[in-house]
Amino acid sequence: MLSWEESQSISSMRCDRAWVEVDVGAIAQNVREIQHLLSPKTDLMAVIKADAYGHGAVTVAQTVLQAGAKWLGVATIPEGIELREAGITAPVQVLGATYTPDQLRAMVRWRLEPTLCTPKQAFVFSETLSDHAYSVPVHVKIDTGMSRLGAPWQEAAEFVQLVDRLPHLELSSIYSHLATADSEDPTVMQLQHQRFQTAIQQVQETGIALPRLHFANSAATLSDRQLHYDMVRVGLGIYGLYPAPHLRSRLKLQPALQVKARVTHIKAISAGTGVSYGHRYIADRDMRIAVVGIGYADGVPRNLSNQMQVLIRGQQVRQIGSITMDQTMLDVSNIPDLELGEVVTLLGQDGNNSITADDWADKLGTISWEILCGFKHRLPRIAVGQTLECWEQAAT
Ligand SMILES: *Cc1c(COP(=O)(O)O)cnc(C)c1O
Question: CB neighbours of 250 closer than 8 A, spacing ≥ 6?
């Protein structure tokens, strides 16, 4: 057992180097903003797969449920179990594929609701539950054009009939996923929507009572109310990012995640000195540089080397040389009185300046989703509120 003093000193060390700060107030506010777009009959599923896009699944789950989200969406069974072990009781749908009896037993044990994509899977699941007295809620996924999970939309009615007929399976919802909802060209999205409508109509014609229907991700939630149905599945928007620039005008979202690190070393170098592996930066004048305790093993993409800005005291500061596994160098010539332990904002807001996941994504030719879930677990997740405490402890 650690003594109280020892555990205090370890917890203060949690942010002595680098950390991710999660503004739970921003997440709650984003949930409320998104709910303003929804009709009262449409529920919000907060998609919190991949550790809530890097924000910390349990904290985010508690926050979004308190702010009014009704459902949680995860990709994997362990992600769902983590929520249950934390005492979260809200309905949790597993959006990813599952197909073995063991997986189903785990989902039943932890009250996680599976996605059904094929007749084979439906037979296996129904058979696995044969000694159960009750039915398990399942979600039928149909592929309307994403070409990922789901039964072909042309076969949806037949598939739903099968699920409806098989013992121990209770049809909880029918859903599909959009491939191009963030595009300014709505053609494919409209085609997918027509297919969804056709499939639903064919289900209805079989006489089966329609269960809950859902179709929209963040982009579709922001772009078109017709796509909302009974529930929307929102990931990115909850974390305060827009799926595409043209969707910005629909509502005001606030990024919740910030990445911060401390200055761990400061030195002067003379003109002509090479910096970091490969000397991919050569000082063009005498300068002062700072070493910051964060690197690519924390999830700062090495491809940002020599092209990243960070914020110190609200000012933009240039990153120089190759980003290394644990450390990164900055040109701090413009801050002569910089001190050890000062906080560097890599992503987030400092004074009037901010750097967003979209800024990084643009530089890297990728999307903000990938940036957010790229931060490693070496970075402690600090919910704002605890941060101040952390700061003070580390500063004293
Ligand atoms: C990840 C995911 C979402 C959320 O997507 P965002 O674009 O982040 O809103 C919704 N539905 C499914 C099936 C997903 O896999």
Answer: 37, 222, 223
- In Å, how far are 61, 89, 165, 191 from 146, measured between CA atoms? 27, 31, 27, 11
Query: Spelled out in words, what is the top-level CATH class assigned to the domain 24-241?
Result: alpha beta
d(CA 190, CA 200): 15
Q: pLDDT tens digits, residue range 165-202?
A: 999 999 999 999 999 999 999 999 999 999 999 999 99
From the options 3.40.50.970, 2.40.37.10, 1.10.10.60, 3.40.50.11540, give the CATH code of 257-383: 2.40.37.10
Question: Is the CB–ligand 1 distance for residue 217 below 6 Å?
Answer: yes
173 lines ligand 1 (CB under 6 A): no
DSSP letter for 118, please. -
For residue 10, is pLDDT > 70? Answer: no
59 CA to middle of ligand 1, Å? 19
Mean per-residue pLDDT for 6-34? 86
The tens digit of pLDDT for each residue in 76-104 reads 999 999 999 999 999 999 999 999 999 99
